[in-house]
Design brief:
ten-stranded mixed sheet; Rossmann fold; NB-ARC; alpha/beta; WH_DNA-bd_sf; plant defense; ADP binding; 25 helices
Length: 777
C-alpha cells in the first residue's frame, strides 16, 4: 500500500490505526475487523486505553498511519484517555489530510455529534471528574470539537447492517478502495471547504440534494468535488463521476454525457439516440434509486435534464455540478450553492511550499521570496501548484528571475501568463513540443497508447511525460489516462494559435524532419498548406492533395467520402482513426502500410467489407465495432501475424468468419458480442496458442462448441445472453476453470467500458487474468 499523505517521503509503519475503548467491543467487533484488514495485507495498530499506559498516542505511529478508524461505543466518552486521543487524531487528520473513518457501534451518530443522551451525560461526567475551574470549560470545548468533527465524516452505523461480518466487509472494501490521495496531492485547506458541503448533504439525507459548486477557473472547484465524491461514494451503489464535460458539450456531447452517466450508474453499456430516450431511461431505470452523480465543468444545456429529472431519483440522492459564475440560471436551480473562495495568504504559502519544498513551510532563507510569489498568484490553487512545481529545487537566483517575470505581467492577462512561465521554463524544445501535442491530441488517452504513438514519431515520450507530470502541467487520471486542467489546455492551444494561420482547420498529426506531431480540425481550404520545419501543426482539407508528408497518426473521424482517395499518403502511418466515417470501402486498391499498428473503423455505418490486409504486416489492433452493414472480413486477415485485438462487436450483418482467422498466432482478444448471425459452432480456436479472451455475448448458437473452451491459454470467456444455453451442458469445464475468487461480471463491465477496446486498455486487465481460467454464462 502507498502512504496516503503529503509526508510520503517518510517510511510507513502502519496502514490502519484502530482507536476504541473496552474489552467487550474488542472481543465482539474490533478483533474481527483487525483480522479482516490483516488478511488483505494491511498492517494494523490497535490503540485503546488498556494497551498503552500513557496519555498520548506515540506520535510516529499516528503520523505514519494512513487511515484512522475510530470505533464509537456507549463507553467511549467515559474515558478521558479516549477523548484525549481523539483530539490528537483530529489534529493529525487536519495536519496531514489523512482518512478518518468513524464507526458507531450500538450508539447513534447524532449522540456522538451533539453529545446527547447517555453518551452526552457520560461526556460531561468525565470532564468534571478530570478537570476543574477554567480548565474544565477549555477541555470540554476541545473534546466537544473533536467529537463533532469526527462525527461529521461519513462512516458506518452498525444498526444499518445485518451482522458484524457484513459491517466488517464493508469497512475493509472501503479501506481497500481509498485513493492514495482523495482529490489532490497536497490538499491544503480542503477539509474546511468540505465541511459545509458535507453538512448540506446530511441535512437533506432523505431528499434529493442538488449542489452547485461555482468559482473562477483554477480556484479548486473540481478538487472539492472530487474530495466529496471520494468521501461519500462508498455509501452509494449507483454512482457516476465525470470530469471536463465542456470538452464534449453541444447536442451530441449532451447525449454522450447522458450515455456515460447511465452506463456508470447501471453498470452496463448504454446507447441513446435522443434526449427523450435519455429522459425515459432515467425515469424507468433510475426511478426511486439513491444515486450519486458528480459532473465537472457543466454547460447549462447538459445539466438541465438532470435537474428536471430530480423527482424520479430516490431519497438521499446527491447531484453535484461544478461550473463558472456565468451559468446563473443553472446555479439558481440548485438547492445549495457553494462559492469556492480563493486561498488566504497562509493557505497559499503552505500550498506553494508543499510543491516547491515538499514541506508545509518554506525554508527560512526562502520565506521572503515565497511570500512575494504568493502575492502575485492571487490565492489561485492552480497557479500556486504550477509555479510551485516549477520552482522545486531552484536556486534563489532562479526564484528572483521568476519574480521579475511575474512583476511584468499585466493584470488583465495575469493568470494565463503565470501558467506560461512553467511552459517557457521547460528544459528543451522536445518537452515544449510534447506538451502541445498532449494538450491538442491526447487528453483522455491511455498513457501507454500515447507513448507508443509518440515514440513511433521519434519523440522520447516516457521521459518527457514524467517531466510534465512533475511540473504539474499534466496528470495521470484513473485507468492510467492522461489529463490536463482546462486552463492549461487553453494556454497550450493559444500558444499553437500564435504559430499557425487561423484558417487552417484539419485534424492530422504530422511528423517529418524538424517537426513533431499535433492535431487539427476540418477545413474549407482545398489548396496545399506550406509547412516550415518549425511548424507544430499541419491543418489541411480532407480532400487536399498535399497529403504526401510522413503522416504518423491520421485522425479523420466522420470522414464523408465512400473511400480514401489515392492521393492520401498513408505509408508512414502508425494509427489510422476513421471512427464514425461514411466509408463503404476503406480504399479501392490494396495498400502497403508497413508501420500501421492500429486501424479503427468503428461506428462506420455504411462499411460493407474490410480492406485487404496483406500489406499491413505490423497491425496489432483491428477495431470494427458497430459496423452494421459489414458482411465480410477479408480472408487476408490470416496474414496479420502481429494482430492482438480483433473487435467485431455489433457487426450484425456478419454471418461468418474466414477460416484464415484461426492462423492468427498472436491474437489474444476476440470480441463478437452482438454478432447475432455468427454461430459459434463455426469457430475453431484450438490452434490459437496466445488466445486469452473471448467475449461472444448475444450471438447465434444452438449448442456449445467445445473448441471455444478447450485451448489451455484461455483466460476469460463470456457467453452470456445465449438463449437455450444450459449450465448443465458443460459443468465439468466450468468448475475446472472458474476461480473461486473471481467475479466475471466485474471483468465484463471493465471490457465494455474501455474506449475503443484499445489493447493498451485491455492488456492490464488481461495481466490479472493470465493465471485464471473462467467461463461466464
Amino acid at each position: 500500500m502507498e502512504l496516503a499523505s503529503s509526508t510520503s517521503k517518510l517510511p510507513r509503519m502502519y496502514d490502519v490505526l484502530i482507536n476504541f475503548s473496552g474489552e467487550d467491543i474488542q472481543r465482539k467487533f474490533v478483533s474481527h475487523l483487525d483480522s479482516a484488514l490483516s488478511a488483505v495485507g494491511f498492517t494494523t495498530f490497535l490503540h485503546h486505553p488498556n494497551a498503552l499506559n500513557q496519555t498520548h498516542i506515540q506520535q510516529p505511529i499516528l503520523n505514519l498511519s494512513r487511515v484512522a478508524i475510530v470505533v464509537f461505543t456507549k463507553t467511549y466518552s467515559q474515558s478521558a484517555w479516549c477523548l484525549h486521543q481523539l483530539q490528537q487524531i483530529i489534529r493529525w487528520q487536519e495536519t496531514y489530510c489523512r482518512h478518518l473513518l468513524p464507526v458507531y457501534y450500538e450508539i447513534q451518530p447524532s449522540d456522538v455529534r451533539l453529545q446527547m443522551g447517555d453518551f452526552g451525560k457520560a461526556f460531561k461526567a468525565t470532564a468534571h471528574q478530570t478537570f476543574s475551574g477554567q480548565q474544565l470549560a477549555h477541555a470540554m470545548s476541545k473534546w466537544s470539537h473533536a467529537l463533532t468533527k469526527a462525527a461529521n465524516f461519513f462512516g458506518w452505523d452498525e444498526s444499518n447492517y445485518r451482522s458484524d461480518a457484513e459491517l466488517v466487509d464493508k469497512i475493509v472494501k472501503t479501506v481497500l478502495n481509498l485513493p492514495v490521495l482523495s482529490a489532490t496531492k497536497f490538499p491544503v485547506g480542503l477539509q474546511s471547504r468540505m465541511e459545509d458541503l458535507t453538512r448540506a448533504i446530511k441535512n437533506k439525507s432523505t431528499e434529493v440534494c442538488r449542489i452547485a459548486i461555482c468559482g473562477q477557473g483554477g480556484s479548486g472547484k473540481i478538487t472539492l468535488a472530487k474530495a466529496i465524491y471520494h468521501q461519500i461514494h462508498g455509501t452509494f451503489t449507483e454512482k457516476s463521476f465525470i470530469e471536463e464535460i465542456r470538452q464534449i458539450s453541444g447536442i451530441k456531447g449532451g447525449l454522450r454525457l447522458l450515455e456515460q452517466i447511465l452506463s456508470d450508474v447501471l453498470k452496463t453499456k448504454v446507447e441513446i439516440d435522443s434526449f427523450e430516450m435519455g429522459r425515459r431511461m432515467i425515469e424507468e431505470r433510475l426511478s426511486g434509486k439513491r444515486v450519486l452523480i458528480v459532473l465537472d465543468d457543466v454547460p447549462p444545456f447538459d445539466a438541465t435534464l438532470l435537474w428536471e429529472c430530480r423527482h424520479w431519483y430516490g431519497g438521499g440522492s446527491v447531484i453535484i455540478i461544478t461550473t463558472t459564475h456565468e451559468n446563473l440560471l443553472m446555479i439558481s436551480q440548485a438547492d445549495s450553492i457553494f462559492q469556492v473562495e480563493l486561498m488566504n495568504t497562509d493557505e497559499s504559502l503552505e500550498l506553494l511550499s508543499w510543491h516547491a519544498f515538499r514541506e508545509a513551510k518554506p525554508k527560512e532563507d526562502y520565506l521572503f521570496l515565497a511570500e512575494r510569489v504568493v502575492a502575485y498568484c492571487g490565492g489561485l490553487p492552480l497557479a500556486l501548484e504550477v509555479i510551485g512545481s516549477y520552482l522545486y529545487e531552484r536556486t534563489k537566483r532562479e526564484w528572483n528571475r521568476v519574480l521579475l517575470q511575474l512583476k511584468k505581467i499585466p493584470e488583465l492577462i495575469k493568470f494565463d501568463q503565470i501558467l506560461k512561465i512553467s511552459f517557457d521554463g521547460l528544459c528543451n524544445q522536445m518537452e515544449k513540443d510534447l506538451f502541445l501535442d498532449l494538450c491538442c491530441s491526447f487528453v483522455g488517452k491511455g498513457r501507454a497508447y500515447v507513448t507508443k504513438i509518440l515514440n513511433g514519431c521519434g519523440i522520447e515520450a516516457d521521459s518527457g511525460i514524467r517531466v510534465l507530470i512533475e511540473r504539474s502541467l499534466i496528470r495521470v487520471n484513473k485507468n492510467n489516462k492522461l489529463g490536463m486542467h482546462s486552463l492549461l489546455r487553453q494556454m497550450g492551444r493559444k500558444i499553437i494559435g500564435e504559430i499557425i494561420d487561423e484558417d487552417m482547420k484539419l485534424a492530422i498529426l504530422f511528423s517529418s524532419p524538424g517537426t513533431r506531431v499535433i492535431q487539427g480540425w476540418p477545413s474549407t481550404r482545398d489548396s496545399p498548406v506550406g509547412v516550415r520545419d518549425s511548424s507544430r501543426l499541419l491543418k489541411l482539407a480532407a480532400d487536399s492533395k498535399f497529403l504526401s508528408a510522413k503522416l504518423r497518426w491520421i485522425s479523420l473521424r466522420g470522414f464523408s467520402s465512400e473511400y480514401l482517395p489515392n492521393h492520401f499518403y498513408l505509408h508512414d502511418a502508425i494509427v489510422i482513426d476513421l471512427k464514425h466515417s461514411f466509408l463503404r470501402l476503406v480504399w479501392k486498391e490494396p495498400q502497403v502500410l508497413t508501420w500501421l499498428k492500429v486501424l479503427n473503423l468503428s461506428h462506420s455505418k455504411y462499411l460493407i467489407e474490410t480492406p485487404d490486409f496483406s500489406g499491413l504486416p505490423s497491425l496489432e489492433q483491428l477495431i470494427l465495432e458497430d459496423c452494421p452493414r459489414l458482411r465480410e472480413v477479408h480472408q487476408s486477415i490470416g496474414c496479420l501475424s502481429n494482430l492482438i485485438l480483433l473487435n467485431l462487436k455489433d457487426c450484425t450483418s456478419l454471418s461468418n468468419l474466414p477460416g484464415e482467422i484461426y492462423k492468427l498466432k498472436c491474437l489474444k482478444t476476440l470480441i463478437l458480442s452482438g454478432c447475432s448471425k455468427i454461430d459459434l459452432m463455426d469457430i475453431d480456436i484450438v490452434g490459437m496458442k496466445s488466445f486469452m479472451t473471448t467475449i461472444a455475448e448475444n450471438t447465434a448458437m444452438k449448442q456449445l462448441p467445445f473448441t471455444i473452451v478447450s485451448p489451455k491459454s484461455i483466460g476469460y470467456i463470456s457467453l452470456r445472453g445465449l438463449e437455450g444455453l444450459s449450465h448443465n451442458l458443460f459443468p465439468f469445464i466450468i468448475r475446472s476453470r472458474m476461480s473461486p475468487t473471481m467475479n466475471p461480471v466485474s471483468y465484463i463491465h471493465s471490457f465494455m467500458h474501455m474506449e475503443d477496446n484499445n489493447w493498451d486498455d485491455i492488456s492490464p486487465l488481461l495481466s490479472s487474468l493470465e493465471n485464471l481460467r473462467s467461463v461466464s454464462v
